[in-house]
Design a protein that fits this description.
Blueprint lengths: L2 E4 L10 E4 L2 H16 L3 H4 L2 H10 E3 L1
Antiparallel strand pairs: 1-2, 1-3
Bound molecules: zinc ion.
């Protein structure tokens, strides 16, 4: 099972797709990318609305 989170599914125009074998592993990649490439802060990432959007955008393959 692979978990995927496409940046574009969170409303950003970006081709990056975070992947991982667990949600935690995938989120670590996604959060690092969001901070480095999009200037997100921990506060923004931990916002309940953002968390809801992220969870809705996660895909399993
Ligand atoms: Zn991105």
């Amino acid at each position: 099972m692979t978990y995927k989170l496409a940046c574009k599914d969170t409303g950003v125009s970006c081709p990056f797709v975070a992947q991982g074998e667990t949600i935690d592993e995938m989120m670590e990649v996604a959060v690092k990318h969001a901070k480095e490439e999009h200037g997100y802060t921990d506060e923004q990432i931990n916002d309940p609305e953002t968390q809801k959007m992220i969870k809705a955008a996660i895909k399993q393959e």
